[in-house]
Structures are given as structure tokens and as C-alpha cells.
Amino acid sequence: MINGALARRYAQALFKIASETSLDPIDNDLRDLTKLVEEHEEVKNALLHPHISLSDKKSIMDKLLGEDFGATTRHFLYLLIDRKRENLLPFIQREFTQLADEARHVVEAKVASAIALTAPQLDNLKQAIGRMTGKDVRIVSEVRAELIGGILIQVGDRVMDGTIAHALKKMRVDLRRNSERPQEVGVK
């Protein structure tokens, strides 16, 4: 709970700076930085290790970031390192992206399916969700074979489950519920 509140405060402060300068590049930088840290165990260990000095952490991250990252994002990361809050980076990134999406009137839709969806299918989904929400839509697609077929869509806290796995589960529950009641055979 404390981490969530701290992450929100850092994200709001960065958002205030970003909205005065350049929102999209900072949002992209934060996403890339979080991805870099989460996907590379060595980077994560170096950044979060308590016995590595703050200046060494900054030096390591500076070399890794190269010229690809903007000054605002770079200085923000250094601030997190100085305050020993680098562990909040993924939470801050999520909060910042939500704030940025609200400002741009964008909603993120997480789409899961048993097989990869084609570009026209994703475009149709994007248009349908856009009509439903009245906002621009960013689709994050993933393939999950356990869904068997169909599609699972999550937009904010709303979930639309049209998967075969869900239908089978519902059918199983209905059959169990009906099998517990005594059956009347031969009654007309």
C-alpha cells in the first residue's frame, strides 16, 4: 500500500513535468526503461543491490541507457536511485502511463486469445472498443493456448470473456448444479 502511494506521488510529479515538456517521449522512455530492468536480471540485480554505491548504479545505468533516453527520464531515474526508490520503477511506470492515457484520452485493452489475431481482427476489435468507450484504444495482445478458442478482453476493470474455456467452465458449473437436484423421470 505504501509503495502504491509513493509510486503515485512520483508518477504525478513526473507527469506534471512531462505535460509541460513532452509527454509521449517520457512515457516511451519509462516503458523502455522498465522493460530493460524487468527483462534483464543482471540489470535488475545491479539496480536493486543494496551494497552497490549510488554513483556506481548511476554510472551503470548511464552506460546502459546510452543516448536513447531523454534527459528528463535519465534525471528522474537518478532521483529514484538517490532516494533509494529504484524498486518503485515498475509501479511508477504503470501509474504514469495511466495518467498519460487519461490526458490523451486513450484506453488500454488487454486482449488474450488462443491463437494470434490477425491485423484486421485487431483493427476491428480496436474500433469496437473505441465505439464502446468513446476513446482511442491501445491494444495489448497476448496468446494463451489454455483459452482453447474465443477471446478475453479487459478494459480497465471490465472483463468480457468469450472464450471456450469460460463457456466449458460455466457449463460444468450448470451441470453440477442441476445434477444435485433430484431428477424426475417419466413425468409428463
SSE diagram, text form:
Blueprint: H1 2-20, H2 23-39, H3 41-48, H4 54-65, H5 71-82, H6 89-104, E1 106-113, H7 119-133, E2 136-143, E3 150-155, E4 158-163, H8 164-180
Parallel strand pairs: 1-2
Antiparallel strand pairs: 1-3, 3-4
Helix pairs in contact: 1-2, 1-6, 2-3, 2-6, 4-5
Q: What name does CATH use for the topology of the largest domain? A: Peroxidase, domain 1
- Kindly give the count of domains: 2
The CATH superfamily of the largest domain appears as N-terminal domain of the delta subunit of the F1F0-ATP synthase
Could you say which overall geometry the principal axes of the C-alpha atoms support? elongated
Descriptive overview:
Helices cover 62% and strands 15% of the residues. It has helices at residues 2-20, 23-39, 41-48, 54-65, 71-82, 89-104, 119-133, 164-180, and strands at 106-113, 136-143, 150-155, 158-163. The chain has a four-stranded mixed β-sheet. Strand 1 (106-113), helix 7 (119-133) and strand 2 (136-143) form a beta-alpha-beta unit. The N and C termini lie far apart (61 Å).
